[in-house]
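Practice problem: predict the structure.
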Amino acid sequence: MRVHGHLRARAGMLDIDVAVDVASGSTTAIIGPNGAGKTSVLRLLAGLAPLDEGRLVARYDSDDTDVVWDDPTADVFVPPDQRRVAMMFQQHALIPHLDVRGNVAFGCRARGMSRGVAERSAAAALDRVGLGHLGSRAVAQLSGGEAQRVALARALAAEPAMLLLDEPLAALDARARPAMRRLLTAVDMPTRIIVTHDPVDALTLADQVVVIDAGRVVQVGPPHSLVHSPQSTYVAEILGLNPLAGTLTGNRLMIGTHELTVGAHSAHDGEVVAVVRPRSVSLHRSRPEGSPRNVWSTRIDMVERAADRVRVRLGMPLPLVVEVTEAGLGALGAGIGDEVWAAVKASEITVIDR
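Answer:
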């Protein structure tokens, strides 16, 4: 399903004014601070709140015809149960007196399925999230990660064309997050829109990241574009991270032809995303003494000054954004085009299963 349009609505004290264009089969992450309007955008897409102005249009994969979901001017509003959209809220909202299979089937029954069809759909959805063996378990006996996957299965059981997820990883501990990330990036998932305040989730899960603040879009684009070409200090600060795709073997991480040593982690060998915080990288004019394990020669491609910091963009072999103070850059005695040495401790590299 593809969705596009212009959403304008009043949400409490906040005016929402957001253009959306979500490609079919893609994952879009909406990121911003608390109160920015992220969840309000999901509610407008789901039909849980109407537009005051604007127009929202969908195109289902099985049809080349646009369907207007919401257009106040034309007095058109398609209710939530007719949009083929499922929303997974931040809280699991599992029904305590029903077992796992009953919780998943409940969502199907609420959409009008017969009991038999609902139970078959529930069983298939639980298999899809790897919980087919827990159908008869009481929800009170589930771990946080299992409960989140049950909530995901409930959303998937009705076979939605679009899945809306509000902070799907926020309640999970570090051990449960990789499994959920793998589920959310599976190729057989419907079109996904994920709301998050965590830049790691946005940068590792999404094909497109939408940064919003105070109900307005600040920047939109693929993760690498936002990280390396932030259009404002706000975008740079809300993301604040360097994601690097690579291949992990033990504590060795290959990024292209460059090898890094990483510290303790819970990631599995194979394709991963390494996250390096801009303030974790140190810059030197000559190779630092003591031979730190992660040291490489590079070049300064760009220098951007903000109120209290300087963002230095490095070139190959690792295109990183590094934050230093104005005094630190002055002491370095280097500018755009100059060769420098970069260093980062193994313990400062976070590795995440992709």
